[in-house]
Structures are given as structure tokens and as C-alpha cells.
Amino acid sequence: MLTIVVVGRNDDYGRDFRERLFRTALHNSAFLQFSGIDFEYILGEWNPLPGRPPLSEEFVARVPNARAVIIPPELHRKYSLNPQMPFHEMAAKNAALRRARGDHVIVTNADILFSEAIVQRLAAGGLR
Q1: Secondary structure class of 7 (helix, strand, coil)
Q2: Tens digit of each residue's pLDDT (9 = 90 or more) over 24-43
Q3: Which helix H or strand E contains 43, and what residues bound it?
Q4: Angle at CA of residue 117, ends 40 and 14, nearest 5°
Q5: What angle do CA 115, 5, 118 make, to 5 degrees?
Q6: How far is CA 58 from CA 22, 32, 76, in A?
Q7: Which has the closest alpha carbon to 44: 103, 74, 88, 78?
């Protein structure tokens, strides 16, 4: 099985993060399913903003084989020494990565579309 790990939070980073996240995850999932690849898609949601719905709920509902881990504000406050940094990408990726069930893992950015060539390579197997 393959695990894909992405991270984000419900702050609309770049003005259209939510749309990019879902467009990409749905594209990649469809490609993987079509190629017969057993996969899971994990979203690590770091320090979600209060008063906004978490991305993870919609992610799990819309994206095939999706799971999510929420890293809550309390943990963020313990982890972060800089109040100007509300999001820690690598720590969020590590938190999600620790929950991966796949034999192989792709840790990527939330808006990276998989090409046909990469999906064919994954489907061919033989990964080490």
C-alpha cells in the first residue's frame, strides 16, 4: 500500500488553499484508483483556526481512502517558540507520517499533481 501525506490548515493560505488541496487530492486519488494502486491519503491539519470548520472533516468526506490528523492549537503552543509562526509544515508532515500505514510513503505538498508517468511507475511496483 502507498501512503500520500499532505498538510495544511483552514486559513486559506495563498487565497485559494482549500480549492487547490481538494482539486489536487481528487485528481491524484482518481489517477491512483484508475491505476489499481492501493493507497491512503493523509491530511495533517496543523493548528486549525477557531471559528472555521476544519479542513480534515471535508477532506475525509470527499477524498477516497482519506484519513486526517489534527494537531491542535494546544500542541502548537507547546511546540512553537515563535508566535509569528502559526503553521509548522515539517512538524505537521512528521505527525501525519507517523500514522502512515503504507509500505511506501510520498510526502508532498498539498497542490502537487501526480503525472501519468509517476503513477505508471508506482503501478509497476518494484519500489524500494
Answers
A1: strand
A2: 999 999 999 999 999 999 99
A3: strand 39-46
A4: 65
A5: 20
A6: 9, 20, 22
A7: 88
